[in-house]
Amino acid sequence: MRRAVTATIGAWRRRTVRCAGPRDQEGFTTVEVLVAFGIAAAATVMAFEIAGTAAGAVRRIEARRVAADEAEGVVLRRLSEGPLRPGVVQGVFSDGTPWTLSITDLRPALGLGRVPPLWQVRVTGASAAPLYATLIPETIE
After folding, report:
1. Which residues have C-beta within 8 Å of that of residue 104, sequence separation ≥ 6?
2. 99: closest CA among 86, 90, 108?
3. In 55, 88, 89, 115, which residue has its Cα 20 to 30 A from 102's Cα atom?
4. Nearest CA-CA partner of 74 in 92, 87, 97
5. How much is the pLDDT for 2?
6. pTM score, two decimals?
7. Per residue in 102-122, is it b (16+ CB within 10 Å) or e — as a string?
8. pLDDT digit string (tens) for 79-125?
9. Residue 8 has what pLDDT?
């Protein structure tokens, strides 16, 4: 009987305990882990580059908005000084950027004869690109 019990225990052990071969191991190899880390690092770098580009675009848009607001203020100050006359005025924005205000009568360019002036008012910055432009008709009182 002792022999039968020993044989049964031996059979049970053989069924439950197997030798672990290379195909029986679970988990990832070192190379697989390194590749996964490399992919994650590349994705992180790309995400930071995209975020940096977006932040730079937001800063540029905000700077343009501020410049347009200040340019509009330049025009409104000039309008408050009295009637418009053709000419050029220069100054500096609050951030030190130079601006140029040009006022032009468009009647000759449009071929208009005896009508009240139509003023083109433009504010340009250092790059000579218009920051603010509008047309203002002169009213007859």
Report:
1. 86, 119, 120, 122
2. 90
3. 115
4. 92
5. 61
6. 0.58
7. bbbbeeeeeeeeeeebbbbbb
8. 888 888 899 999 988 888 889 999 998 888 888 878 888 888 999 88
9. 62
